[in-house]
Write a structure and sequence with these properties.
Structural class: mainly alpha
Number of strands: 2
Order of helices and strands: HHHHEEH
Strand content: 5-15%
Helix content: 25-40%
Shape: extended
Distance between the termini: 30 Å
Radius of gyration: 20 Å
Strand order of the largest sheet: 1-2
Number of helices: 5
Largest sheet: 2 strands, antiparallel
């Protein structure tokens, strides 16, 4: 994949092993959100065209296979836990006012470790909402 080429899977927000139905659903959700008739925000037309191009490449099995052949091998990440994320909403509109998004994160040990005696998994989640690095300080780091 050329450096300037966008990852079609990332554009649609689906995994590389997504089914045709998942790809179709992701495209229709993106099209409803980004279509120029419904969304006139600056830059959204380009996002819509990117989603359209991604769908054209991934919806056809032959084109998808050709595209997949250009991708670098997918890196496997082995985590000491399994996780599931659930969001309170699937997308957020571009608004000039604060918005709220809730996230439920479920963590558990891998399936193979659940049946063997093992030390407990300690998890620490830190959310930094301070403004100490806002502005010029953030730009330097």
């Amino acid at each position: 994949m050329a450096p300037e080429q966008q990852d079609h899977y990332a554009v649609l927000g689906v995994a590389r092993d997504a089914s045709q139905e998942e790809i179709k659903r992701a495209y229709f959700e993106a099209a409803q959100k980004l279509h120029p008739d419904k969304n006139t925000a600056a830059g959204e037309t380009e996002l819509f065209l990117g989603a359209q191009q991604a769908y054209e490449a991934l919806s056809n099995p032959k084109r998808r296979a050709l595209y997949d052949a250009t991708l670098p091998p997918q890196k496997k990440t082995f985590l000491p836990y399994e996780h599931k994320l659930t969001y309170s909403r699937s997308d957020m509109a571009h608004l000039d006012e604060p918005q709220m998004l809730y996230l439920i994160m479920e963590l558990e040990s891998p399936a193979e470790a659940r049946h063997s005696p093992a030390p407990p998994l300690n998890v620490c989640l830190v959310l930094d909402r301070s403004t100490s690095m806002k502005g010029e300080k953030q730009d330097k780091h």
